[in-house]
Write a structure and sequence with these properties.
Distance between the termini: 19 Å
Helix content: over 70%
Strand content: under 5%
Structural class: mainly alpha
Length: 89
């Protein structure tokens, strides 16, 4: 990835996208995940950061491989939170 592409993957940008997804309820799974994480004791800020990690995987795949955004896989990663063992793969 070059520097220009890397600049699109900042933590702040990913968090902003997650916050926008929550506000828009699109995809629906994002708002559901936030509610689930907060209800089970994860502070909201931590939950958003975890969700941004799940989003980063999809953004990276799109940028690196020219793939389409995989909403199904994104949803699977959201479902796995707060466990992030899948990030080690």
């Amino acid at each position: 990835m070059d520097k220009q592409q890397d600049s699109y993957m900042t933590e702040e940008t990913l968090i902003e996208v997650v916050e926008n997804q929550i506000a828009d309820s699109e995809p629906k799974k994002v708002k559901e995940t936030l509610m689930r994480l907060v209800m089970t004791g994860t502070p909201r800020e931590d939950a958003i950061q975890l969700m941004a990690c799940a989003l980063a995987i999809e953004v990276f795949d799109v940028m690196k491989n020219g793939a389409s955004f995989n909403e199904r896989r994104y949803g699977q990663h959201l479902d796995a939170l707060p466990n992030i063992d899948w990030m080690e793969d």
